[in-house]
Structure prediction request, 117 residues.
Amino acid sequence: MHVPVVLDHPDPTSFSAAVARHVIDGAGAAGHSVEPADPQAEGFDPRWSRADIAADRGAAASADVRKGQARIARADAICLAFPLFWWGMPAMIKGRVDRVWNWGWTDDQQDEPELSL
Prediction:
């Protein structure tokens, strides 16, 4: 099994980073391949932009989005490690989810019949 482990925390000594390291070590010890990912270190821009809107309408996705999609395509499971901020994920990981798991790549409701009330 191949598992990307995505860490969203700027402090390598944080609890989230420790959790990610344990997942990486445990999965590796169990014989699985792991792929550490750090969107902050990679310079990922979590902001949704006009280029993302164009990609939603059929234009090519940006390089950082394609890299994230390729990582997901290789995955059998995904681990997201991050602290909870106000009962939700931090902006970096939320932006990554919004931009990488984008419309048309993960889902497309255009082929589904509309509900009639």
User: Anything to note?
Assistant: The CA atoms of residues 69 and 84 lie 24 Å apart. Residues 2-111 form a domain with the Rossmann fold fold (CATH 3.40.50.360).
